Amino acid sequence: MIEKIRSDIYRILVELPQSPLRILNSYVILGKDRNLMIDTGFNQPECLKALREGIAELNLDMHKTDIFVTHFHADHSGLVATIKSPESQIYMSSTDSEYLEFSLQSAKEHWRIIEQLYADEGYPEEELIKVGLRNPARKFVAEKYFECNVVNHGDIIAIGDRKLECVSTSGHTPGHMCLYEKNEKIMFTGDHILFDITPNITTWRTMPEALEKYLDSLKKVMNYDVDMTLTGHRENQGDFKKRIKELLKHHAERLESVCHIIQDNPNLNGYEVASKMEWSIRAKNWEDFPPTQKWFAVGEALSHLNYLADRGKIRKKITDGIYTYEIADTFSESDFNEIVNM
């Protein structure tokens, strides 16, 4: 299914089966000599079918089509190797391109490092095994690594009469990028800004300060003049600046909540902190969480814990080989004002 956005911009709705994300928005910009596709979907049959149907409906020649990958996550990069032609140029940030290359070519080592990071935060081994069997980030990755043309902040990709500026927005991934079209004030936001769900901000082996990076990136794009926001998932209609303020407030409230949890329950590990946080999910309790959603929840909890520890609001220590957290001696209730009003 496709949707016409402008005379030369279309959205292909790529269904994401059994994923709470539901839909990946793959955008196509038609040019005179070359076209540009933005993001692709998971490497799974249902996604490939939807993408190919959209390509056919647009009569899109992949020999004349390049692909911009906003970030390396499998729901955005999974089908690049499958649908690209030998003539296709693939654009991605150097950081995410390197991360993708390592995750595909050294998959066992990649996942061993990540699982150890979670185990150090109290994630039970038996639950890590369940996640390993079901995690779509592991199951539906690209069939092989593909060479990328590295793009940096400020680089321009010209398609037809449109000049698309690459905007570095690290946080959701270490090298996430948006695309900005100045003339019509259009921002392709990938997963940096979403309207009816909040982007997952986790912790990374190469970027433990992910939440700080994400908040800084939100404030950076606030300076862009945007009339149309084309998001990576679900609905793409909304007020750009208003949504940025909502996301900043959301994380401020999350940080305040984490402080209260630790203040009331000293020496919890990261897994336990996540279990006491509030989540928008159809589950009766923490034990009822689907394994993959629990994985994402713990990752998000860790990004907030790292943010607070880096600022001296909480202390991180090792207890019986596991990291645990306690409120800092100097912490006071007035500190919440600083967090909420960041």
Task: Indicate the topology.
Elements: E1 2-6, E2 9-15, E3 23-29, E4 35-38, H1 45-57, E5 65-68, H2 74-77, H3 80-83, E6 90-92, H4 94-105, H5 107-119, H6 125-134, H7 136-139, E7 149-150, E8 156-159, E9 162-168, E10 177-181, E11 186-190, H8 210-221, E12 228-231, H9 240-264, E13 268-269, H10 270-276, H11 291-310, E14 314-319, E15 322-327, H12 335-340
Parallel strand pairs: 4-5, 5-6, 6-7, 11-12
Antiparallel strand pairs: 1-2, 2-3, 3-4, 8-9, 9-10, 10-11, 13-15, 14-15
Helix pairs in contact: 4-5, 9-11, 10-11
Report on this structure.
The chain has helices at 45-57, 74-77, 80-83, 94-105, 107-119, 125-134, 136-139, 210-221, 240-264, 270-276, 291-310, 335-340; strands spanning 2-6, 9-15, 23-29, 35-38, 65-68, 90-92, 149-150, 156-159, 162-168, 177-181, 186-190, 228-231, 268-269, 314-319, 322-327. It has twelve helices and 15 strands. With 342 residues, it is an alpha/beta fold. The model has no long low-confidence stretch (mean pLDDT 94). It is globular. It is 38% helix and 21% strand. Strand 8 and strand 9 (162-168) form a beta hairpin. The longest helix is centred in the last third of the chain and has 25 residues, at 240-264. The strands form three sheets. It has a seven-stranded mixed sheet with strand order 1-2-3-4-5-6-7. A five-stranded mixed sheet has the order 8-9-10-11-12, with no helix packed on it. A three-stranded antiparallel sheet has the order 13-15-14. It has two domains: 2-103 and 143-243, Metallo-beta-lactamase, Chain A; 247-340, Orthogonal Bundle (Arc Repressor Mutant, subunit A), CATH 1.10.10. Helix 4 (94-105) crosses helix 5, helix 9 packs across helix 11 (291-310) and helix 10 packs across helix 11.
